[in-house]
Specification:
By secondary structure, the chain is mostly helical. The chain has helices at 2-36, 41-69, 74-87, 97-124, 131-156, 161-186, 203-233, 236-244, 249-262, 264-276, 279-297, 302-328, 334-363, 374-379, 381-392, 395-398; strands at 367-368, 372-373. It has 16 helices and 2 strands. It has a two-stranded antiparallel sheet with strand order 1-2.
Length: 401
């Protein structure tokens, strides 16, 4: 039991180190694409899209392998981090946006195998009554990793790209080592405590039916919300703050990083609501904050847009631990369910980034009432769809935890 707690702690620490590794490289590559390779906003959006479509393809595979292999799948997870350390070193050598897209695609494949087993096994070795908060802490450490990555980039923004990416590689290597240590602590036999079971039905007989009824609406919610969130967690947000709010590259990176920390206590409170009250209510709160934040972020006034960014990040990031908590609790299919909602999130992020990049290229100079950025307003619509799905489609399955 103690060893599994230590393994859970290592998973949580990896959420920090692995995120530092990726988020440090993200603004560096985004500005390299914009300023050196002269990529369009669509091209920059496709950087995020290529990453998420690749991660989506591998997420289901990684989830299924986790259900079948248990902790043995962590070998693939560690390899994903270590190979990422090699891939990021190739970015400075590419001559155009197309090669950049290919490298991001490869990183997406590696990240699917790296992260899905960690998220699934973390739920497997955690008690049901604290699972939502454990996932919240896990993603809080990820947010702190994003802050650290952005802070590091802010300090190193004038440094050569090769130096920035070398530091990124070091953090990827550290993450791989942490996963190897965690695997040695978990052991071979892993079972989940308190998996979701539909009341009044024998779990063995109705496992597949329960899985379908539970996971399909959840997939749709994650798909819709991820379309908007792709702007906040991808390459576009750095360029958006730079172009539409007039912030410097360093200031944009700092604001995004600190915003990620400000949202952390609210994220934990929403996860507490999911554990103690209702996951449905928690999701409704998160999505409402995301919609309000998106509206404020669409203004060209930094005094409104920056608080809007914070609210939007609260909404987007709070959805993640609650949906993972629900997915991992599905009897016999916890790993596969994690893979499925990761894939739906990746598809949503892929589509959202590409659509947002195209909208900003085509409609970026159109401002409603002379102040609201039209493309950002349009990207809020998927959040409206997501909150409707939570209120209607998830009511029966998720009104009780």
């Amino acid at each position: 039991m103690i060893q599994r707690k230590l393994a859970a702690m290592l998973f949580i620490v990896t959420a920090y180190t692995g995120t530092v590794a990726f988020r440090l490289s993200m603004p560096a590559i985004a500005f390299y694409a914009k300023n050196v390779l002269e990529a369009s906003m669509l091209g920059i959006g496709l950087l995020t899209s290529s990453f998420f479509i690749a991660r989506g393809i591998t997420a289901i595979i990684a989830g299924g392998l986790t259900d079948k292999l248990g902790s043995k799948v962590l070998v693939a997870s560690a390899a994903g981090f270590l190979l990422n350390a090699l891939v990021v070193q190739l970015y400075p050598a590419v001559p155009n946006i197309y090669w950049l897209l290919l490298l991001r695609f490869v990183q997406g494949v590696l990240n699917g195998f790296a992260w899905v087993p960690i998220q699934a096994l973390l739920g497997f070795i955690t008690s049901k009554n604290i699972r939502g908060r454990i996932y919240s802490i896990y993603f809080i450490l990820g947010a702190l990793g994003a802050l650290s990555g952005n802070l590091l980039y802010s300090v190193l923004s004038s440094a050569p790209l090769t130096r920035i990416l070398m530091i990124s590689s070091i953090f990827f290597i550290i993450s791989g080592i942490e996963i190897v240590l965690a695997k040695s602590m978990i052991g071979e036999n892993v079972s989940i405590d308190g998996r979701f079971e539909k009341r009044g039905e024998p779990s063995a007989r109705h496992a597949v039916q329960t899985t379908i009824l539970t996971i399909v609406p959840l997939i749709l919610v994650v798909l819709s919300s991820s379309m908007f969130s792709s702007i906040l967690k991808g390459d576009l947000i750095y360029v958006y703050l730079n172009v539409y709010l007039g912030l410097s590259r360093s200031a944009a990176s700092l604001i995004i990083g600190f915003a990620g920390v400000i949202v952390l206590p609210v994220n934990y409170m929403i996860s507490w609501i999911a554990d103690k009250k209702s996951s449905k209510i928690a999701l409704e709160i998160a999505l409402t904050m995301g919609i309000l934040g998106g509206l404020l972020l669409s203004t060209r006034n930094p005094l409104l847009a920056v608080p809007g960014l914070i609210l939007a990040m609260i909404g987007g990031s709070s959805i993640v631990p609650v949906t993972r908590k629900l997915a991992v609790s599905i009897r016999s299919y916890g790993g596969t369910s994690i893979g499925l909602i990761n894939t739906s999130g990746n598809i949503g992020s892929m589509a959202g980034s590409a659509i947002a990049g195209l909208l900003f290229d085509r409609l970026g100079n159109i401002y409603l009432a002379g102040e609201l950025v039209l493309p950002m307003i349009l990207m809020i619509l998927p959040l409206v769809i997501a909150i409707a799905l939570v209120t209607l489609a998830l009511k029966e399955n998720f009104s009780e935890n």
